[in-house]
Amino acid sequence: MSTAAESVLRVEKGLADPEELAAITAVLLARAAAQPAATPAHRGRSTAGWRRLERTPGFRAPHSWQG
User: Fold this and answer.
1) DSSP character for 10?
2) Largest Cα–Cα distance of the chain, in whole Å?
3) Gap between the Cα atoms of 46 and 65, Å rounded
4) How many Å apart are CA 9 and CA 20, to the nearest integer?
5) What pTM did the predictor assign?
6) Which of 8, 1, 32 lies closest to 22, judged by CA?
């Protein structure tokens, strides 16, 4: 249970005015309430269609860029 004296935000460095805290609170609440963009139902293939897995080597080095 929170009381009126308990603060939700804490200023780590510097001095923030009540107006500045209100502004950042409004921005954070607006971002939290925003709905994410609808993702398309069909994204297509995640790999190239021409890639033939039977032709790839069985081992790839840990430092390989193809991993």
Assistant:
1) -
2) 67
3) 17
4) 11
5) 0.42
6) 8
Categorize the per-residue pLDDT at 8 as very low, low, confident or very high, splitting at 50, 70 and 90. confident
pLDDT value for 1? 46
Burial class (CB in 10 A: 0-12, 13-18, 19+), 21: middle
Whether 11 shows a pLDDT value over 60: the answer reads yes
The DSSP code for 49 is T
CB 22 within 8 A of CB 9: no
Residue 24: CB partners within 8 Å, gap ≥ 6? 9, 16
CB of 9 closer than 8 Å to CB of 21: yes
